[in-house]
Amino acid sequence: MINGTEFTDRLDQLENELWLDGEKITGKISEHPAFKGIVQAKASLYDLQNDPDFIDEMMFFSADTKEPTGVSYLQPKTKEDLKKRRRMIEHWARLSNGMMGRSPDYMNTAVMSFASSAGLLAGRENCFPENIQALYKRAMEQDLSFTHTFITPQVNRSQGYIELSEKPISAKVVDRNEKGIVIKGARLLATQGGLTDEVLVITAPRLFLDADEAFAFSIPSNTKGLKFICRESFVGGESSFNYPLSSRYEEMDSIVVFDHVLVPWNRVFYYDNVEAATDFMTRSSFHTFAYHQVVTRQIIKTEFILGVAELLVQTLNVSEYQHIQEKISEIIIGLETMRALLEKAENDAEIDEWGLMRPSMIPLQTACNIFPKLYPRFTEIIQIIGASGMVSLPTEKSFDSEIRPELDQYLQAQSTTAETRVKIFRLAWDLTMSSFGTRQTQYERYFFGDPIRLSSNLYQTYPKEMHVDRINELLNRGC
């Protein structure tokens, strides 16, 4: 298990190709204003897993190497293993208040689950399950960090769209040679793209999937021809007073461009096999364990939101109003619903065909259908409670100027000073109204894709026939 300094040094040495605002990033990534906050936040996670007070819940001993290994790589064989994984996720999520959607445990979980289901590819054409197992082993031994990219460019989102462009838009295999496959084109939305050791590239199943897009592999982020084009940074500034969240947890999202990138054969999981690509993503344990990680993080995030909302209520002294009590209760109900669904998923876990203790999928699917609707409402509640106080907020520098006496006089609260009151309101603003905060809302809305498609998947997989049979039995029963 690496520590924060080792993670930061390794990232700086990679010299990944990142582009921001039309300029190529030079120098140490960890020192760039757009990235240093999130790099420091990730480094603190790696430090936590080595903290003597937490290490028993953050590590296990690998059966192969006998070395201490991060619990995010643990393949659970029992319900206690599953709960051990959840406790690890909770510790890391609390350190970032649930704001970091791509904390290392998310992608480590993905690598673990892919390796556990590698048998799905055994004996299939153009499939190399041994390469997935090798990645899993390498990731554990080196405590690697990953980002991933599933999504193709949104040229045309109609169901029947087939790309006919002469030059690839969506990343495709354009050549196969003795060294490996060659990829040309782009993929979207790699959160923390360029800020990790490797990028995992995998195809999401869809209608009319071409064979040259049916591939999966993992390569170092500094591979020749690979570049990450970043969106605008949402870091408002370095001041933790002015920007208490974005200064720390702005993850950055990027477009991944493959300019004739050579993927060596020992890095390829499968290629040119639509059936294998579809089977692997739908039948592997990836979604189950990813949902388990995500729901755990979202619960911690909801706890944070509840704390912010109640602190606003106390600061404004409005707890006596029933409409305020109703709004806070909405957050409590959402929190307890998510907790209950996660607990049910763990309690109903069963051993899968590969020998892993897999959480029950239906409660997790339900939670991932609920949260995209809950989160925007949570942010709205905070905005409503804060009201006009969320708008006219002075900065840290203002309190260090000659106008401080006016601020102390006119912005004070009954129970706290003006400076503390503004800190609280700036936190609420950064959470719900800044560019960082609104990105968080959109991120949670679409974390697992189109909410309508998520609902459709739940409908299609939920066991309904037993309930229909009971109704038919009632209707057919004689007097």
Question: What can you tell me about this protein's structure?
Answer:
By secondary structure, this protein is of the alpha+beta class. Helix content is 47%, strand content 14%. The protein has helices at residues 4-14, 36-48, 55-58, 79-95, 104-116, 129-142, 246-249, 274-283, 286-316, 322-347, 361-386, 404-410, 418-432, 435-445, 451-461, 465-476; strands spanning 18-20, 23-24, 59-61, 68-70, 146-149, 172-176, 180-191, 198-202, 216-220, 226-230, 253-264, 268-270, 350-351, 357-358. A hairpin with a 5-residue loop joins strand 13 and strand 14 (357-358). Helix 1 (4-14) packs across helix 2, helix 9 (286-316) runs parallel beside helix 11 (361-386) and helix 13 (418-432) crosses helix 14 (435-445). The termini are far apart. 44% of the residues are buried.
Overall residue-averaged pLDDT value? 94
Low-confidence stretches: none
Q: What's the domain count?
A: 2
What is the number of helical segments per DSSP (H or I, 4+ residues)?
16
From the 3D structure, determine the CATH topology of the largest domain.
Butyryl-CoA Dehydrogenase, subunit A, domain 2
The largest sheet has its strands arranged as 2-1-10-11-7-6
CATH class of the largest domain: Mainly Beta
Topology order in helix (H) and strand (E) letters: HEEHHEEHHHEEEEEEHEEHHHEEHHHHHH
Radius of gyration: 24 Å
Structural class estimated from helices and strands? alpha+beta
- What global shape is seen? globular
**Largest sheet descriptor:** 6 strands, mixed
Number of distinct beta strands: 14
Fraction of residues in helix: 40-55%
Named CATH architecture of the largest domain: Beta Barrel
Distance between the termini: 69 Å
> What's the CATH H-level homologous superfamily of the largest domain?
Butyryl-CoA Dehydrogenase, subunit A, domain 2
What proportion strand?
Answer: 5-15%
